[in-house]
Amino acid sequence: MSKFKIRHVTKYIYEVPVRDSANQIMLYPIKDDYQDVLEHTLWITGNPMVEIYHDYFGNEVGTFTHVQPHQELVIDSKLVVVTKAKPLPVDAAPADEQWRTLEQLRNHPNYIDFLKQEYFGALEEVKSLVEIERCKNCSPLVSAKEFCAYVYENFNYKKGITTVETTLDEVWKIKSGVCQDFATILLVMLRLINIPSRYVSGYICANKSNMRGEGATHAWVEAYMPFDGWIGLDPTNNCLVNETHVRLAVGKNFSDCSPVKGTYRGISDHTLEVAVSVSYEDGKTTEGTNEVEHAGVISSFSKNSYRRHQEMQMQQ
After folding, report:
1. Is domain 2-83+258-310 in CATH 2.60.40.2250, yes or no?
2. Residue 47: CA count within 13 A, CB half-sphere
3. pTM of the full predicted structure?
4. Which residues lie closer than 8 Å to 3 by C-beta, 6 or more apart?
5. What is d(CA 237, CA 213) in angstroms, rounded to the nearest whole number?
6. pLDDT digits (tens, 9 = 90+) for 90-145
7. pLDDT tens figures, 245-264
8. Residue 252 contacts residue 116 (beta carbons within 8 Å)
9. Which residue in 33, 73, 164, 284 has the most C-beta neighbors within 10 A?
10. Are the beta carbons of 92 and 41 closer than 8 angstroms?
């Protein structure tokens, strides 16, 4: 069992005052047999009322509106989370039986969303590569681990080269990025071989063990394995997910799990600062800060001078 204190501060700074900032936050960790939240405090500029609901994927989501003019919006989330190690997958059933079971899930309502392939220009190229690299006689778990290793070995981990608006084609072309990009490419590969796979947003709490993604929000993949359930795969670190990973939300892709997004009324551009710190039981702390200048994106109802903002820190 591991206990972590996590602080996640999101700060929008506007050039001139804005108002009517309506936001959605996904900062509430998943609660299940392997993860529990002992404490959670949330402070938001203006102390607005936060309404909470559960979305289609079962994630806890908060919404709030800050009506008054403001030149800064801060969302400060403090957590105490306990995690337990999940048993390693057994992978005991014959490989052909497991693949047949996955084929039967193709139209199952619980998994169909996690098999839908996002189209992009290089998809046929990725399909060809997957067919070449795929181990035809391996189990789904072994295949998933091999593609996890492929992404880790063939993509450059490089901060600042991509944003949340970088397309799949761009990531595939430059073969570089951060955990968000690594997770997205692995999702494509696993879905191509008919393994239901979902995007996971959260934190990695590795206590300065040189794992990529510490001191920021992190992302990885969960793949569904017959007879073993959802198994976490972290292609950024080429490992099975364990108790050092704290899960915030799951979905088809990043947009389903974005930590903060919303709209505001005004003509001002904005700068975003995101800071994440993790404190451990041994007294050590890991922290990081990311600052991104980002112009407010005019939304589809721009006649009303609304602009859209989203937490633009790449999940590292």
Report:
1. yes
2. 0
3. 0.91
4. 38, 80, 81, 82, 281
5. 9
6. 999 999 999 999 999 988 999 999 999 888 999 999 999 999 999 889 999 999 99
7. 999 999 999 999 999 988 88
8. yes
9. 73
10. no
